Each structure stands twice: as C-alpha cells, then as structure tokens.
C-alpha cells in the first residue's frame, strides 16, 4: 500500500487535558505519513499556549477568533490542510484515544477503490472499552428514521466486516481529497449536530461510497464537550436554542434538501413524532429497542438533543 499524506484535524475548545490524551495516543500510531492540525475554537484559557509548549512541532495549531461550531471549526482546519497539499482529511474528536493501526486501516480501505469517498472507525465507549457506541448508520428516508448501527452492543465480532453505510460519524472520519474537491466542506449552518447526515448524503449523491472499517478502532469519552457548557453560559444558551425542540429546524432542512421530493414533510413529521422509529421497530419485532429508544428520544427532547446519541 502507498502512504498518501493524511492531515488529522482535531477541534479543541477549553479541553486541553482530553486533547493531550488524544495526542499522546496519536504518537503511537504506525501510519508513516501524517500531520496533526489542532484547531482551537476560541478557548477562554491558555489551551493554545499549553499545547504548543507540550507538543511543539508534533502539531500545528490554528487559533480561531471565535467559536465557529463543529462544522466550520473543522472546515478551517481542512481548508488549511488542502491549501498546503494533502491527500486525505481525517476528522478526529479530541475526546478520543486511538488504536495504533486506526489510520492505516482507514487509508487501506479508502485506497482500495476510487469510488470510496469516506471511511470511518469502529467507535467504542472510553469507559466501557468493549461496548460499541457506533459503526456508522443507516437513514430510512421515508420513515424519518436515522439509525445508529451497533449502539450499546458488546463487541463479539458481529460487526467485523467492511460494510457500506449511509453515514459515518465525524468522531473518526477519513475524507478523500477528491470528495472535498467535488462537494466542498461541511455545512456550517448546522453548528452542532446533524452535519454528518447532510455531508454523507451529499457525498453519496455525488457518487461516492461511505465505508465502515472494523479494524480501525477508537475509544470515545462521550459528552466531554457538553459537560463544559455550564461554565460558559453564553455558548450554553446558544446550544440550548439549537438543541432539543429547537433542532427541528435542522432536521427540517435535512429532509427538505435530501428527503423525498415534494413529500419531505412526511418523513420530517415521522422523525419528530417518533412514529417512524416505532414503525421500524415493530416491523423488526425489536421490543427492547422500542422501549429504550422511545424513553431515550422523549428524554432528549427535554434535555439537550434530538439526535440519536451521536458520538460527539
């Protein structure tokens, strides 16, 4: 296998401690041709200084003048990497640790077929290292259901095949340069959530395949960013406005842009009312997930998010 250049983009916001653990794990990866670009999304403390002093030339740091949210924060790092010349952009959450082969496996699969535009990792919970959080997912457009594959399942080898998905999570997502050149970057409209569904759908519509790679493994500290919100009331207020019930506008736009022509309102209503998910579970006879899914989704409406616990 050739070793095309991979630019690893890590978004940091007032989280240098978890970012350092992520960077320390990246020091052990075996892929030989990579760079690390840390985009600081306007941290209020000394994150940039601390990271520069500790990691020196191992990383490049971009210090944003404001918090641009998840999509545009990553876009800034990706534009920088593209201008310098790279072959792949690898989005990686700062609250993760990675297996030493995670990048090698992503690139290996991406290089195997020119039609593959993105590859993504098997995501485990950091505090439950054999329980999977996600292996990508499927979108049932007519039902208004965005399904997470492998969520909360112990890994006994049931997701060990390289598989095509409707979407992958930005927790660990390798993007081919040719895809960026064709469909551009993430849509900053979404700010904090839903952007992966939109971006992967745009990639598929452009003729690219989205592939889950089981041998690429990472472990994710779920909700590390969300736990910091109470310390920053202005940003917390903004997140609350665009989360929960307020996130309806993002799903409305998602279904308007990509759902069934003229009838996109139907799956949008099924998504928001939970009816689509109930119908899918009833058809499959999955009674446990009916109960747990409805409890979770109803709770999310009043807590912080209407998104199916995406890795973020």
Helix-strand layout with pairing:
Blueprint: E1 6-12, H1 16-26, E2 34-40, H2 47-55, E3 60-63, H3 69-84, E4 88-93, E5 96-98, H4 102-111, E6 116-125, E7 131-134, E8 137-140, E9 145-148, E10 153-154, E11 163-164, E12 172-176, H5 177-183, H6 195-205, E13 209-220, H7 233-242, H8 248-258, H9 265-273, H10 275-284, H11 287-303
Parallel strand pairs: 1-2, 1-4, 2-3, 6-13
Antiparallel strand pairs: 4-12, 5-13, 6-7, 6-12, 7-10, 8-9, 11-13
Helix pairs in contact: 8-9, 10-11
Explain what this protein looks like in three dimensions:
This protein has 312 residues and is an alpha/beta fold. It folds into 2 domains: 6-228, Spore Coat Polysaccharide Biosynthesis Protein SpsA, Chain A, CATH 3.90.550.60; 229-303, no CATH class. It has 11 helices and 13 strands. The chain has helices at residues 16-26, 47-55, 69-84, 102-111, 177-183, 195-205, 233-242, 248-258, 265-273, 275-284, 287-303, and strands spanning 6-12, 34-40, 60-63, 88-93, 96-98, 116-125, 131-134, 137-140, 145-148, 153-154, 163-164, 172-176, 209-220. The strands form 2 sheets. Strands 1, 2, 3, 4, 5, 6, 7, 10, 11, 12 and 13 form an 11-stranded mixed beta sheet that branches. Strands 8-9 form a two-stranded antiparallel ribbon. Strand 2, helix 2 and strand 3 (60-63) form a beta-alpha-beta unit. Helix 8 (248-258) runs antiparallel to helix 9 (265-273) and helix 10 (275-284) packs antiparallel against helix 11 (287-303). The longest helix has 17 residues, at 287-303. The protein is globular and about 55 Å long. The relative contact order is 0.15.
């Amino acid at each position: 296998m050739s070793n095309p250049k991979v630019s690893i983009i890590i978004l940091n916001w007032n989280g240098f401690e978890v970012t350092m653990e992520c960077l320390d794990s990246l020091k052990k990866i075996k892929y030989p041709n990579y760079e690390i670009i840390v985009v600081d999304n306007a941290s209020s403390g000394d994150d940039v200084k601390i990271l520069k002093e500790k990691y020196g030339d191992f990383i490049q740091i971009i210090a944003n003048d404001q918090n641009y949210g998840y999509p545009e924060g990553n876009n800034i790092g990706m534009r920088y990497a593209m201008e310098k010349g790279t072959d792949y952009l690898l989005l990686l959450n700062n609250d993760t640790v990675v297996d030493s082969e995670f990048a090698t496996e992503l690139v290996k699969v991406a290089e195997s077929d020119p039609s593959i535009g993105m590859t993504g990792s098997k995501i485990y919970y950091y505090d439950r290292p054999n329980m999977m959080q996600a292996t990508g997912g499927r979108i049932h457009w007519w039902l208004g259901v965005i399904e997470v594959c492998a969520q909360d399942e112990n890994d006994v080898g049931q997701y060990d095949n390289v598989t095509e998905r409707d979407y992958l999570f930005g927790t660990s997502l390798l993007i081919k340069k040719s895809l960026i050149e064709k469909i551009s970057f993430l849509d900053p409209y979404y700010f904090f959530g839903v952007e992966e569904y939109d971006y992967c759908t745009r990639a598929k519509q452009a003729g690219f395949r989205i592939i889950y790679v089981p041998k690429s493994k990472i472990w994710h500290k779920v909700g590390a960013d969300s736990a910091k919100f109470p310390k920053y009331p202005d940003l917390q207020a903004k997140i609350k406005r665009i989360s929960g019930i307020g996130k309806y506008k993002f799903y409305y736009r998602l279904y308007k842009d990509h759902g069934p022509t003229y009838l996109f309102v139907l799956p949008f209503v099924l998504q928001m009312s939970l009816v689509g998910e109930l119908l899918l579970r009833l058809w499959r006879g999955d009674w446990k997930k009916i109960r747990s899914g409805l409890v979770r989704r109803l709770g999310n409406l009043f807590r912080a998010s209407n998104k199916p616990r995406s890795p973020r």
